[in-house]
Amino acid sequence: MRIAVDAMGGDNAPKEIVKGCLRAAREFSDVTLVLYGKEEAIRNELSEDLPNIEIVHSEEVVKSDDDPVRSIRRKKESSMVKAAYSVKNGENHALFSAGNTGALLAAGTLIIGRMKGIDRPGLLATFPALSDKRAVFNMIDVGANADSKPLNINQYATLGTYYSKHVHGIDKPTVGLLNNGTEENKGNDLSKSSYALLKENDSIDFIGNVEARDLLDGVADVVVTDGFTGNAVLKTIEGTAISLMSVIKSAIMDNGIKAKLGGLMLKDSLKEVKDLLDYSKYGGAVLFGLKAPVIKTHGSATEEPVYHTIRQIREMLESSLLEDLISHFENQ
Fold first, then answer.
1. What is its main location (predicted)?
2. In terms of residue numbers, what domain contains 37?
3. What is the CATH number of the domain that holds 112?
4. How confident is the model over 268-314, as pLDDT tens digits?
5. Whole-angstrom Cα distance, residue 295 to residue 96?
6. Among residues 270, 284, 156, which one has the least CA distance to residue 220?
7. Would the CA dihedral through 207, 210, 282, 276 be positive or negative?
8. Backbone CA torsion sign across 147, 331, 319, 55
9. Using CA of residue 239, residue 245, residue 249, residue 250, what is the dihedral sign?
10. Among 147, 146, 178, which Cα is nearest to 160's?
């Protein structure tokens, strides 16, 4: 399997992208990583030559502040665009970038193309579930479409269900609609119309509305919502985790010798908490509903999340996820 990597995307590119790719290439000999970007800059970061790492020189870079659609149309020699065309043309099987999110969404939709039957692709992210019921949950959409239609949310439920089955191995994933209450009549017109469609969707196990306060308790395997709400929840979870660890650190460091000794005794437990809240180990956000996997990781990604994202893509490609989804929507 071959993965096209935008080696110039992200705040820490190409250094951290290359480091993550080296780690993944050492571990997964069945994966060939094709790095698109400025060849000299990439080679300067390669600490060793591996047979499953290739470089394709790309002179241009899509920057974080570039207009998404204009950059995709004008920067034909950029690392992101060349990587996207390689997937469209069948040279590679998936696309991975830590770069401009809007541009990656545009490249996925305009170059690689939507799966037949999909109205709008959605971004799916995986989060830790802090309960005994389940280890993780998936949420879609977390930012691809700020203005979603009931049709989109209904399709997200099917996409998320297939992802949970194939990637997380959950036999019958439950689906919840993110809302401001659990009663069926709660929410705005979008929520109510989406609820009606989800109830009739016989390809999912719909459990009704779920509230944001219950997400990390593992209330459902798949949570569906519009992209505006999903992105706000994503950043709230991310910010809360960062702030929580900062508060704990300050409480230990600023309260004398007793607090420091207590912190030392709790060091291993606190590391477990930090690891549990770190959702980057589950990989990047999948732009789901396209003809091939397109994965976005955080713009500030370092070696660790880059490695986990490549592992995630490998799991997707090893499964029959896309083939089964294509078959499902073609038969609708």
1. cytoplasm
2. 1-118+289-320
3. 3.40.718.10
4. 766 666 666 666 677 788 998 999 999 999 888 889 999 999 999 99
5. 5
6. 156
7. negative
8. negative
9. positive
10. 178
Edge-to-edge strand list for the sheet holding 2-6: 53-57, 32-37, 2-6, 94-97, 294-296, 285-288, 122-128, 136-140, 222-224, 174-178, 205-210
Does 331 map to a domain? no
Question: Please, which residues have CB within 8 angstroms of residue 254's CB and are 6 or more apart in sequence?
Answer: none
In this structure, the answer to whether residues 109 and 139 fall within a common structural domain is: no
130 in any annotated domain: yes
- The pTM for the full model equals 0.87
CA atoms of 291 and 288, how far apart (whole Å): 9
Pull the structure tokens for residue 54: 């290739």
Same domain, 97 and 32: yes
- Determine contact, residues 208/177, Cβ cutoff 8 Å: yes
Statement to judge: residues 97 and 163 lie in one domain:
no
Assigned domain for 170 exists: yes
Residue 74 located in a structural domain = yes
Q: Give the 3-state secondary structure of residue 220.
A: coil
Taking the C-alpha atoms of residue 50 and residue 32, their distance in angstroms, rounded to an integer, is: 10
